[in-house]
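Self-study notes.
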Amino acid sequence: MPRNSVAVAAGLAAAGVAGAAGYAAPSIARLLPPRLRATPRLSGLGDPGHVALTFDDGPDPKATPAILTALERLGWHATFFCLGTMIEAAPGIAADVVAAGHEVGVHGYLHEGAIRRSPRALTDDVTRARDLLGAATGATPYWYRPPYGELSAGSLVAARAAGLRLVLWSAWGRDWRAEATPASVVNDLQRGVLAGGTILLHDSDCTSAASSWRTTVAALPLLAEHLETRGLRVGPLREHGLAA
């Protein structure tokens, strides 16, 4: 290959790498401490006396009803980020979530990361999930949380096209792990930001260890005890002071 052709090819390759890096740049938001400082609203930091409780990956015919029962006993309401594939399989469970007074948000149609998907594919995915959720529940979702919290430039395009607001979390219980216990879930949550923060848990094991949701259910009363000692109120994102 002539020298000038090699230079051109190298330049195109470098431009491709730079373009890919730019497209994936929003994914740095998954790094918790930097994200909390740089993008507090994206991280779900709101009313300092309130904790936003959120669940991902449902609605699940086994797990979601158990979570709803546990929340009813505690007098808590939460935001459930629903997957389109799960809504299609259990639309009645999605309707039950809203009927019980909880908020629903969009988690996408497929549980796939954003970096390797085009803006068009992501937009189609998110709007499809939004429409399924609205049809199943009669509610108009406001929030979008991408799977794995993975963001790309395409995620921003998709959220805007679907009329949704992106939100991640400030504390996670790592409840998806087979080795998680109720105590470990609460301990992991305490490593994040709870006061004024947004908690991430799961109401399905569709992308987690089998029956991991049982650990989540058992962790909720322990979490309630901890938050009560700190004088923190618990509720959905709509009550967290982020929507304005």
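Second protein, same conventions, sequence then structure:
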Amino acid sequence: MQSILRKNTILVVGGAGYIGSHMVRHLKDNGISLLVLDDLSSGFADALGDAELIVGDAGDVKLLDFIFTSRHIDAVMHFASFIQVGESVLNPVKYYENNVVKTMTLLGSMARHKVRNFIFSSTASIFGNPIYSEVDESHPQNPINPYGRTKWIVEQLLPDYELAYNLKFVCLRYFNAAGAQPDGSLGERHNPETHLIPLAINAALGRSEPLKIFGSDYPTPDGTCIRDYVHVCDLVAAHLLALKYLRAGNDSICLNLGNQTGYSVKEVLKMVGTVIGEAVPHQIVDRRVGDPAILVANSNLATTILGWQPKYSKLQDIVTHAVAWHRRN
């Protein structure tokens, strides 16, 4: 029997966070060997069940060398970026150091240890303000905030690592990750919370102050920003398909992940109110720096290349699953 030390293993960097913990569960459910690396600065060890966790920094060269030497890692999934747009504007140094410099350290260690497969959690923020609806992969990339630029920089350097070190990659550009496990057993926990759906749920449940809507004068039908919300379980399913794609020896690629349908902030609040049975208390405040008016995906290429088919594409399903998590926790 193959020793566990020689078994092909996925290193899930940032695996104790929101999307990372769902990825860990999905990999375990599919019988795939994995190891989690997380500094727990924003993740939670109790979200991992019995998955093996190393508490540490993705920029720690000695730790990375130890991991790649002691375990047969054949692929890395990266979920360890900071993600708050507003914070990135106020504190760009934090974002460039973590999202770019530490990712380069990780890639350097992968190159030294000949780990060839890299799946990167990217973002629709690399596109900036769309110049046409249903943003596809060929849309010009013009990020308008430091968060988006950090992701864009990593995407730009990956082809150089491929040329020099034969490192193959899949960049998965999320639109708006949302939702929870359908049974409410695992969901979204951020401290502080910045995502619309959990903020709206907490406000409707009376657990927080009224929700702040950042701007109501955007060029959209109701004046609020429009986003494409994609279920977290569908996102992690795409990562597993990307892993199989790379392990089969296919070419590097960047793909958009969304449901190709946009909902405004006010439409999301209406759905949360419908599911909970209580209106979402809210107030209109000034626009937030760095927010584009509309971001909606064209994900046809992910369907063609990976065979990805979102299972929970309806906003009602996304909100219902998220509400189940929040009621339980």
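Instructor comment on the second fold: The chain has ten helices and 14 strands.
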